[in-house]
Amino acid sequence: MRLLSVKPNKERFELYFKRGLRLQQNGETEQAKRCYALASLDDDAMIPQAAYNLARIYQTQNNAIKAKEYFHIAFQRGLPKAAYYLGCIYKTEKNIEKAEKCYKLAADQNIPEASYALGCIYEKLKNEPLTALAHFKKATIDGYPDKTSVHNKIANIEIAEAIKYMTSPK
Prior knowledge:
- This protein is an all-alpha fold.
- It has helices at 9-25, 29-39, 48-60, 64-76, 81-92, 96-107, 112-125, 129-142, 147-167.
- The protein folds into 2 domains: 7-79, Serine Threonine Protein Phosphatase 5, Tetratricopeptide repeat, CATH 1.25.40.10; 81-170, Serine Threonine Protein Phosphatase 5, Tetratricopeptide repeat, CATH 1.25.40.
């Protein structure tokens, strides 16, 4: 009698993940979602990037419930950028408190987009320019890709604070 060999979970999950990547690159999103879901099963051998990729697909399909579920899994399994995208969903849903919490988790892991998003929350929604300034500067240090935008934010806050200082009664 011949026994069939069964691959260990990690190898099987890696195969599902790689197949999902190929399918996604070929525009076969629904099939890619199935493969990513299989590679994201709650197991020690799961592939966190599969959960992240699945969340991004759900996000582009405007399925916030599923996107949040898989971003949460990806973050819990070690992908800090997932917390940033989770924050983006919460911000879209106008849940600024949860968005801020997620952005802080990602910013603490040096995700520059999260630091920038925090800066925007403190600048526009909380009216705390000096806290916003600190987050914008951290975004720069962490490598925020839109250098012009973040430098403009920093300059505008510094100029506004200098004007406040110069025009305040002494």
